[in-house]
Every structure is written in structure tokens, then in C-alpha cells.
Design a protein that fits this description.
Layout lengths: L2 H22 L19 E5 L14 H15 L2 E5 L7 H8 L6 E3 L17 H7 L1 H6 L18 E2 L9 E4 H7 L7 H14 L4 E3 L5 H5 L11 E3 L4 E3 L7 H13 L13 H6 L3 E5 L3 H4 L2 H4 L8 E4 L2 E2 L2 E2 L10 E4 L6 H11 L6 H8 L6 E7 L2 E6 L14 H4 L3 E2 L5 H7 L21 H7 L3 H16 L8 H11 L1 H16 L2
Helix pairs in contact: 1-3, 4-13, 18-19
Length: about 500
């Protein structure tokens, strides 16, 4: 057994033992563990901040500055938060924390499986919200709590996501101006622009990722885009790959690949800021923040760079698919000695009456590390000291709170403005047909033992088809492979839950 496989097996065994132990442990009550407190008598909580807030600040805060921010939050919230900064991506560190003797009271469940994957390791928070979470219940719309509920109607976590439109197409406006071209809005116009960009700059390219390409383009060729769909022939809900039009989509993506439109390492791991620093990305079809956050970092090296957001339509309508709210959320672990304090802290951050607390969590000490520029009515603008030494370890974001203010910070001003405008505008992308259905993903995985094999087959073979390593003539054979892997069983599991949850 090689070292990588041995490590994976070890993590799997550890995760299994963790969940079994958590399932056997009694659920703590809101007041349990009040004996665990700092020397000043305040309850202490340990937050694993894997929310993505720290993805561009991996060096962490200055320890002395971080301590000052912690002290201020403890004084104002009545809870002393101790942050655990992720040292690696993915769920492995979560499993290790849950299985160790180290404390961890809250973390964000990954978007891939949501809270269902950790159902045995976390606790319902209904009573905690009723006692400590009035601001949370006020700031987060009622509809967004539904996907966080289990079969008994208990709320299993604080929602992390909202429905957004993050996979829209971006085009270099400065190049359009240089070439006298209009902003493209159709597939044909986009292809003409890319060809013109390639003639203007032979290294020009379309940037995307293997995880984003379907979300950014599939809707132009299929009825529902990157979504399950209801087959009228048999009234079965089926995975996206079984939609009519997918073969036409992959044929077009292969054509783009053969034309040299894509970045050569699109389907491998690459560093997004380094890609943008080449100044050769003429079209971006992927996650929005790669434009709004990276562009301010590299614009001095790419003189005159400007981007325009545009919705592209293909033969079947809008190319992009809306990203529906996921079942990812901030959850309280069964290990938590102060579960009520966790909700109390989060309630403080999500103050319904003022943005001050979230700005402290995001930027640190008021009037020193950040300050109000304007705060009249809905026009709340802040500026910050980018060299404060604090990098937001205590901010647990949710779009409902992030859109309540804007910043002058040139590195984030555009990003923050975008959050409250175009990102939540859903009218120029396809809405998944079952966007509001709170599927139990763990149950689906249990009922479809080959679910992981099917996903790996999809991930691997789609890339091979796009890059021409597998001929398009093999498409029917590929669909047969999916059938043998159990994709019909997957469809049956989805359909059963869809019918039960929608009353069909």
C-alpha cells in the first residue's frame, strides 16, 4: 500500500471512529460546560474558521494584534472566541479535530455534502437560537433556514450560503475597446471575440476550472443547465449528465479546446493569481471573486486591465446556471462545552441593528483598524488600515451580512459592491429546477453505494472528452458505463426524495 493510500485509509478509519463516538455521546444542553471559561469568567469557544475568509491570508494575524481583537470581542460579546486557522484544504482537518482531544466547538460544513455528512457529530440548535440567536433569525431570511433542517424539522446549523449567480462570463473590456468590439451576449459573438483576442494576442485564453466549466456554460445547451432535471418521459428526476443537449455542449467545449482557446492547465491544479498575473486571460468563465479580488492585486502589472460582466446565451438560453443555496452551514459540535456561547458569539457578529460587530470581526479595532466614512441610512461606507496586522480570523461570513456595507479599501471595494448587486441578481442565468429542495445528501450516498464511483467517472471522463483524449464517438459507450456504475439508482434516490419533499 503506498503512502497516499495508507494516509487516506487512516483518515477514513479515524473519521468513522469519530462519528461513532459522537453518536454515542449525549447532546449537551445550552448551559452545559459553563464551567469552561477564561480567567475572567467568560465562556471560551473554539472556532475552526474554514469559511474561506482566510483563503488569501494564510499567514495569519500578528499574534499581539489578534489577542487585542479577541479581548475586544470577549468584552463586547461576553464570549471569548479562540480561532483555529485551517492548515490545509478539505475535510481532513475537520475529521482530525473531531477525533482528537483538542477542542473544536464550531466549523463550517463543506458545500459538497453540507451538514448531512456530519449529522452524527453535531447538535440541533433550535433551542439555542431561541435563547441566544434572535439577531441570526432576523438577519437570515426564514426561507434560508429550511435547507438546514433534518427530517424532524430541527435546525442543524446556521446557513452559510444564499442563492447567487457566481459563474457569469467576464470579458476584457480594455481589449474590446482596443479592437473596437462590442460586449458579446451570444455564443456566436463570444466565439468571435475570443478569435479576435487570439489574433490580437496569441497567448490570449479563456480561463476557467474543471469545477466551474459546467456551471458557466452548460445552460446554453441543456434545458436546466448544471442541475438535476425532470424527465417527462418517465417522471424521474435525473442527474445533469442525462439531459438532452449535454453531448452538444461537450462537442462545443472540445472544439474550443482544439482551437487553443482554453488555458493549457485548465483541468489540472493551478494557482489562479499566477494565471491572472500573465495578463493573458481575455475571458473568464468561473467563480466571480477570481475577478473581483484578484484583479486589484495584479492590475499594476497588467496596465489598463478592465473587465465587463456579461451574460451569454446559447442555443438553449443562458449559459450560466444559478448556484442554489447549499446545505453548508456553521454547525455546533457534540464536543462543544459551551454550545450556547457559540450561538451567542455568532448572534453578536450578526447584529441586526448595526454593522459594527461584523466590522470588528472582519477588520478589528474600531477607529484604529477601520472607521466609518459614511453611515447615513443604507449608505454605510467604511475604510480600513490594510496594514493593521489583523486578517479577519473571527469573521464567519454570510451574504446577508456582507452586503450591508461597502469599503473604500481598493483591494476589496469592488468585491464588496459586487456582493450586494450583480452576485445576487439571478435573472440572467438558469435556475436549477430543484433549487429549493433540501435533499439529504448523506441519505442519497447511503442509498447509492457507487455514488463516489459515478462522480469520479464523471470528473475523469468529461475532461478526457473535452481535451480530445477520448473521442466523441465514445459518448454512447460512456453513457453505458454510467449505467453500469449505477446512475439509474442515483436517479431513483433523487426522485424518491424529490417526490417526498415536494408532495409529488
Amino acid at each position: 500500500m503506498n503512502k497516499v493510500r495508507a494516509y487516506q485509509v487512516l483518515l477514513l478509519l479515524l473519521s468513522t471512529l469519530v462519528l461513532a463516538a459522537c453518536a454515542a455521546a449525549p447532546s449537551p444542553t445550552p448551559d452545559a460546560g459553563s464551567q469552561s471559561a477564561a480567567s475572567d469568567g467568560q465562556p471560551v469557544i473554539h472556532l475552526f474558521n474554514n469559511s474561506g475568509t482566510l483563503q488569501f491570508d494564510t499567514g495569519g494575524s500578528n499574534p499581539d494584534v489578534l489577542q487585542r481583537v479577541e479581548d475586544l470581542i470577549a468584552e463586547e460579546s461576553g464570549v471569548r472566541p479562540v480561532v483555529i486557522v485551517p492548515s490545509e484544504p478539505g475535510a481532513d482537518q475537520i475529521n482530525l479535530l473531531l477525533g482528537s482531544s483538542d477542542p473544536v466547538d464550531m466549523f463550517q460544513t463543506p458545500t459538497s455534502g453540507g451538514w448531512h455528512d456530519y449529522a452524527e457529530a453535531i447538535i440541533p440548535i433550535d433551542d439555542l437560537l431561541a435563547q441566544h440567536g434572535q439577531a441570526l433569525l432576523s438577519v437570515i431570511p426564514e426561507a434560508q433556514w429550511e435547507i438546514m433542517k433534518n427530517a424532524d424539522g430541527q435546525i442543524m446549523g446556521i446557513p452559510r450560503s444564499t442563492p447567487t449567480n457566481p459563474y457569469i462570463t467576464w470579458v476584457r473590456q480594455d481589449w474590446l475597446d482596443e479592437l473596437g468590439l462590442e460586449v458579446p451576449t451570444t455564443l456566436e459573438e463570444l466565439e468571435a471575440v475570443v478569435a479576435a483576442f487570439k489574433e490580437y494576442n496569441p497567448d490570449a485564453m479563456i480561463g476557467t476550472t474543471s469545477a466551474n466549466i459546467m456551471w458557466s456554460t452548460l445552460g446554453g445547451f441543456t434545458p436546466n443547465g448544471m442541475s438535476n432535471w425532470l424527465d417527462p418521459a418517465d417522471n424521474m428526476v435525473k442527474p445533469w449528465i442525462m439531459q438532452p443537449g449535454v453531448r452538444e455542449w461537450i462537442t462545443k467545449m472540445n472544439e474550443w479546446w482544439e482551437n487553443g482557446y482554453f488555458f493549457a492547465d485548465t483541468f489540472t491544479q493551478y494557482d489562479a493569481p499566477e494565471l491572472f498575473r500573465t495578463c493573458n486571460v481575455g475571458v473568464w468563465m468561473g467563480w466571480y471573486s477570481r475577478i473581483t479580488l484578484i484583479t486589484p492585486q495584479i492590475e499594476s502589472a497588467c496596465e489598463g486591465i478592465q473587465w465587463t460582466r456579461t451574460s451569454i446565451s446559447g442555443p438553449m438560453g443562458y449559459m450560466a446556471t444559478v448556484s442554489p443555496q447549499s446545505a453548508s452551514g456553521y454547525v455546533v459540535t457534540r464536543k462543544a462545552e459551551n454550545p450556547g456561547a457559540v450561538i451567542q458569539f455568532m448572534n453578536w457578529v450578526y447584529d441586526a441593528d448595526s454593522v459594527r460587530n461584523q466590522l470588528i470581526a472582519r477588520y478589528g479595532i474600531p477607529e484604529e483598524m477601520w472607521w466609518f466614512v459614511e453611515s447615513e441610512g443604507d449608505n454605510i461606507v467604511v475604510d480600513r488600515n490594510a496594514d493593521s496586522g489583523y486578517v479577519s480570523e473571527y469573521m464567519m461570513p454570510n451574504l446577508n451580512v456582507e452586503i450591508r456595507y461597502s469599503v473604500l479599501d481598493p483591494a476589496r471595494a469592488w468585491h464588496n459592491e459586487y456582493l450586494g448587486t450583480a452576485l445576487i441578481s439571478l435573472d440572467d442565468a438558469k435556475m436549477p429546477f430543484d433549487a429549493g429542495v433540501p435533499y439529504n445528501l448523506s441519505r442519497i450516498n447511503d442509498e447509492v453505494p457507487t455514488r463516489g464511483d459515478i462522480q469520479r467517472l464523471l470528473d475523469e471522463q468529461i475532461v478526457l472528452f473535452i481535451t480530445g483524449q477520448r473521442p466523441l464517438e465514445d459518448w454512447d459507450a460512456f453513457m453505458d458505463e454510467l449505467s453500469r456504475a449505477g446512475i439509474e439508482t442515483w436517479s431513483e434516490a433523487i426522485t424518491a426524495q424529490y417526490n417526498a419533499l415536494t408532495g409529488q
